[in-house]
Specification:
Two copies of one chain form a homodimer. Chain A is an alpha/beta fold. The first copy, chain A, has one domain: Alpha-Beta Barrel (TIM Barrel). Helix content of chain A is 39%, strand content 12%. In chain A, strands 1, 2, 3, 4, 5 and 6 form a six-stranded parallel β-sheet that branches. A three-stranded parallel β-sheet of chain A has the order 7-8-9, sandwiched between helices. In chain A, α8 packs across α10 and α10 packs antiparallel against α11. Chain A starts with a strand and ends with a helix.
């Protein structure tokens, strides 16, 4: 089987976006549905999604497990998997882990950029690792079947999570720091530990995570993948594009600031470039998967390897959630 | 003026308790009104307090600042100052700091025993100090007039808070670890840094913080105070008895467990001794202040020093909130 999976998108969802994802041949997309929203606010978001799923049932449906990716392939649809980029929806209550799973959550980051109740984010000065509450929550996520996602977490916290979690974890959207040393990207040591433990990395095409930002070339990106494979092997890598299609800039403000500061925080941006950055021309939307296919071939990957990177590796990971 | 202040009680509040505090001559009490309650749950607690304040207006009233301690003395009443033992009521929202101040909050711990969004608690393995959000919240607490209370925090977090806060901070209820090395007690280095910065320590009479627990003698407690004065001076010490009068054991379960674990946590207790410990016989309730007066005299303190320790030092601290 040949699956195409984008394991992180945070678009301004509309029929148009779902059509583009179909055109791109995506069988599954892991979508971020909340950042800093609490449980009650999460309920509002899932209601919005109920409407979207109903109105676009010819294009998408809510995925629960890997069988739904097969079903999507059969029905020419895209299975949508819900995920959170912060643990705010479970508040300080271990019992909400099961509740958010019932609402469809399949991936949850233990932290966004700052310290959470569970672990340390990559923008904090000191990383104390997974907390007492974090240990309990990981156990519960393992039990109910929510993937621990450490994309925005700091290094020690991520290593702790790998060790504590009884199931492999994911970094759904980040790149190796050997290629582009952004705060959000990951060290080679961490990536090796991740793949050794059966975990998976979704490579990001968000410009702030790319060498040369918007001007990053397809060739540079695919050469980076080849080097990453030398560290992680070819079966623990996928795509998590972090595509934020059609999002207004106020959304990136919310992502970065939530309600934690009275002054404005620019995260990966800057005062002069506060908004969403422009995508590179080879990945303006998910149809760029076709370019990735060509680019990966050009740097020497075989068809089986390319299918793995562009979807089958994620499919296999979904089997063990 | 000669004030008597107990700067931490968490009793099962009733007319009887307020009468005992009056009999003890207390002009002011800092009362814990919440632990892990969120903002909405805090509102329920303040409503309960509105009723208590109304029904017992001949004994107590809600204090806002140090002038209310003078008023209490004049009117033979006890001024009640609200405090939180965790930062849960401000959730992840900097704007709630001002709101909780409007509701009467004058002291807020940045952490209970676990990691919070603001800092690290004394029961975590690693202490990463005050977080990004914590820095912002301390600034806001300084602005609106809520005291940073680090009673349950870990050491580096406390040192960070002392450094970051523009106003002196408090440890409302803890003892020196040189006397009794409990996790909740504080190192001599920390206590010296606290007093050098104008901060204040409220000495606790909660048995788990005492040498020999319930069997701790008044003499031992007062000798400890004398030694602490050698480190901190005599003006930066008060009483924060941590008295939990008439509380049922389910309350100590809530304090320790909140909703963060599926298994039971015993905190300072143990499986065999899960409940509230018995008070030492010289401080079964606030009337024990009379015993403290005698005990302090017996170890050589002057009347002025005793008045400082039993209330005037806290009064002076309230002036700079």
């Amino acid at each position: 089987m040949k699956f195409r999976i984008d394991n992180l998108q945070y678009c301004n969802w509309s029929r148009k976006v779902f059509e583009i994802n179909r055109e791109a041949g995506l069988d599954a997309v892991h979508v971020t549905i909340v950042y800093h929203e609490d449980f009650k606010e999460l309920l509002s978001e899932t209601k919005k999604w109920e409407k979207l799923l109903k109105e676009n049932s010819d294009l998408i449906f809510l995925g629960k497990n890997h069988n739904d990716i097969d079903r999507a392939k059969d029905e020419n649809k895209t299975a949508i998997f819900f995920g959170f980029q912060n643990c705010s929806p479970i508040e300080d209550d271990i019992n909400l882990v099961e509740k958010v799973h019932q609402l469809g959550c399949r991936f949850m980051q233990l932290t966004y950029n700052n310290q959470s109740l569970l672990a340390t984010g990559c923008y904090e000065k000191i990383d104390s690792g997974v907390t007492n509450f974090g240990r309990e929550v990981i156990k519960e996520m393992n039990r109910v079947g929510i993937v621990v996602d450490m994309s925005h977490s700091a290094e020690k916290s991520t290593l702790d999570a790998i060790k504590i979690s009884e199931k492999p974890i994911a970094i759904t959207h980040a790149n190796p720091s050997f290629w582009h040393p952004a705060k959000r990207n990951k060290s080679s040591e961490l990536l090796k530990t991740l793949s050794d433990s059966g975990g998976i990395l979704g490579l990001s095409i968000y410009p702030h995570h790319l060498k040369d930002n918007t001007n990053c070339t397809l060739k540079s990106f695919c050469e980076m993948i080849a080097k990453t494979v030398e560290i992680m092997g070819v079966k623990n890598i996928g795509i998590g594009s972090d595509l934020c299609l059609n999002q207004p800039d106020k959304v990136v403000e919310w992502m970065r600031n939530g309600t934690w500061s009275k002054s404005k925080n620019y995260g990966e941006g800057s005062k002069n470039k506060p908004g969403f950055p422009k995508q590179p021309n080879w990945f303006e939307d998910a149809r760029g998967f076709k370019n990735l296919e060509k680019g990966l071939k050009d740097v020497g990957f075989s068809e089986i390897e390319i299918d793995g990177i562009l979807g089958n590796n994620w499919y296999n990971f979904y089997k063990i959630i």
